[in-house]
Design goal:
7-stranded mixed β-sheet; 21% strand
Length: 494
Amino acid sequence: MAEHHVVIIGAGMGGLAAALRLAARGVRVTLLERGPKPGGKMREVAVDGALVDSGPTVVTMREVFEDLFDAAGASLGDHLNLRQADVLARHAWSADERLDLYADIERSVEAIGDFAGSRQARLFRDFCARADDMFRTLERAFINEAAPTPLSLVLDSGLIPVARLKPYSTLWQDLGRFFPDERLRQLFGRYATYVGSSPFRAPPTLGIVAHVELGGVWLVEGGIHRLPAALAALAAERGVSLRFGSAVSEVLVQHGRAAGVRLANGEELAADAVLCNADSAALAAGLFGRKPQRAVRRHGVKARSLSAVTFSINAPASGFPLVRHNVFFSRDYAGEFSAIFEQGRIPDEPTVYVCAQDRDDAGTDPGGPERLFCLVNAPPRGDIQPFDAGEIEQCEEHTFNLLARCGLQVDLAPERRVITTPTEFEHLFPATGGALYGRTSHGWQGPFSRSGARSKVPRLYLAGGSVHPGPGVPMAAISGRLAAEAVLEDLSST
């Protein structure tokens, strides 16, 4: 296919994965990125002389990346050092209520038994078995399917396995069968936020996250930004033309199909196909021109996923035994999601995720300042009602009051932290309002609502966390594979 040329917009995970696979099959690929380096949402923030990972922090589904490197004739281990985490996360509800979950299910069973009793430990086993069953049902017929539908899922997997998924229920309702301890129901309900959704509205199928995490959580030595950097370097070796600082202003549509792009500087690049790795909302909003607007269905503001307020910190921390990943829970989980999705405001007491980048499973204190990434969920209103300074100050106060209630003290001198709000995320990812995960997965049809690899404009393809199969580093990589396969199939027919 050396005679074919594909232009890819965006060097996030989906775009990089697609570029590598296409180049490996002999396609000439130009990868355009408006920023100075690859990675998309896998970003670093400079804070007081340190670089803090301030997006995704871990890799799951390692086999997805082993397959990606293998497809390019390379080995993952030759390019990156990955270390499996023994402690998945440390969870806290107060200074006296803490629970660690482990990659070893037996250690987690024991920990849950000590925390909430033997019956709860047995029910956790049942939950893990259900998560495994759900993943087996969904892996081929949904996750790895280019454009799944409820009918195709039933036809592929069978009516009984699909019925076991309880699609008309919600994750929160389903968790009630396994976790009479409200704290654990809250812990596993958090899986809905991995796709920017509410556990009170999302379907039970998001319980598959338990299966994914127990399959291995991997830390990238040197920081997760090493992953897109390695993929970009390998893509260049395989002949991909990477152009950073190259913003695309328009996808050119001729004779009813995508035919190339126009850059912000006026330069035009002809192509046999265009693959867009930007958020699909940017296409629908006309940010790539009027003609490609019809490529995807536009979703309303209420369908947007969660945004966030994040604190990238380089400061001393004390009083709580941090490990790499830590979650501090609010006392009103239902109120938290009601505030975000119904009232459009930051919760009075948000649940807080803290990645202590310089810690290990043993929680060894690095001594002195350390890199912390703190995230609280927020409404995606960065374009329609930007947050004022008072709201952000109040969010900061509530966030670190909760951490203090659980025992964690952090030096919050202004020069030691950088705050990113939904307004800044809107600037980074235009037309999203700051939504970080595309659209929500609320309702039984939610997981099927994302656009597939093929758009409604011929020869214009989609990849990234806003399209199927969804957000997260491995899912975005899978979307890149699905898009590349669609491109190859369509180009081979001409």
